Amino acid sequence: MMKKACTIAGALLLMASLVSPVIAAGTPSPGAPDQQNYSISGFLSYHQLAEKLKKIERSSQGQVRLEVAGHSNQGREIYKATVGTGEKVVFITSQIHGNEPTGTEALVSILQYLGSSNSAEAKKIRKEITLVAMPMMNPDAAFLDRRGNDMTWDEVVSAFPELADAKPAWNYYTTPRQGDNYAERPGFDVNRDYNPDLNYTPKAADFPGGSSKPGWFITPEAQTVRDVYQSLRDEFGQVDVYIDLHHQGPFYYVEGTDDVVTLSLSGRFVADPNSPAGAKYAEYAENYHYDFSRQLNLAAYHALQSMGSSPFGNISFYDQKIDLPGTALGAFALNGSGTVLFEVRGQTQSMGQKKKGQLVKAVETGLYGILNGVATGSVYDLDPEEYDDIPITSYEPGI
């Protein structure tokens, strides 16, 4: 059964967690909902994460390999953890927005399990999959407990002198928002700094850009993720699966009801290159595998639904009709990866420790659904059309 589209207002607000709201090209400081500004106390800090990952590596007896993939703009190490030796590559990133930490906790738990367990499940995943995880790919934002990184436009121009006469990127934060300090310490929404052309170098003519246009790889954080993705393609031929872990606001609903959504999934981030709307991506048409993305989302959804009277609440999907080539999800989908967005319910700290644990477990459960589906091959047997039967996320209750 095909779902009706979300309301226009709902669609725009749903994008706020994955991206900043749609702002006219040239606007230097796009806003973001106040609901995205919440404390991350109670979650792993940057230093705690580093120590935890090192401990997991030591105790794994070689199963988990930890590397420094790159450095943030302020010089903090960006870690990459690898487990498994299979030919199928699954690449997962978390905390591209520093105040969205639930996925980081889930990834640490998964790395610990896969690095130490001798269960049949863990052995199968390690044998069939090479899992590469970047649990905190924007550590400067995590340190500042905010969405954007810590970088000025002057630093961008210093790195790319050809941009001296360009207008600042549209996703450059320079004004105060509740709980943030962008006026004193500007930064970029890194989730708009990707480009389907993985070898792209910044050009002044492409600035300030816009929400539905490609990014530029001007931030060290996006460059690091791009470099890891390219290195995996060089080694394995392709990155089969890319998953990005985010938060959404606290009050999204199952369309047509007053039921609050715990976790949203999505597999579509750019216009289909094989359609008239996606003709501008024609060079990527042979690599684009939307059906596989839908199968991956279904694997996560089925795993969560299999809990029966789920402790996680309602699971839905974003019926996205948006074109976001500046996100990692959009850029990597065009480069041949099956893609999945996780948007867990936000403001976990206000809900107490029990709710935090449930939300982290929801992310873990969905990720294991994908990992097991890819490892066993069962994901390829799913009917991608069933993806459109998953309840839709709506911003307005009862609509």
From TrEMBL:
Keyword Protease found: yes
Origin: domain of life: Bacteria
GO molecular function: carboxypeptidase activity
Pfam families reported in the protein's UniProt record: Peptidase_M14 (PF00246)
Transmembrane segments: none
Signal peptide, first to last residue: 1-24
Domain Peptidase M14 stretches: 42-363
Record's keyword terms, sorted: Carboxypeptidase, Hydrolase, Metalloprotease, Protease, Signal, Zinc
Active site: E343
Keyword Membrane (UniProt): no
Cofactor annotation: Zn(2+)
Family to which the UniProt record says this protein belongs: Belongs to the peptidase M14 family.
Record-given protein name: M14 family zinc carboxypeptidase
Organismal lineage: Bacteria, Bacillati, Bacillota, Bacilli, Bacillales
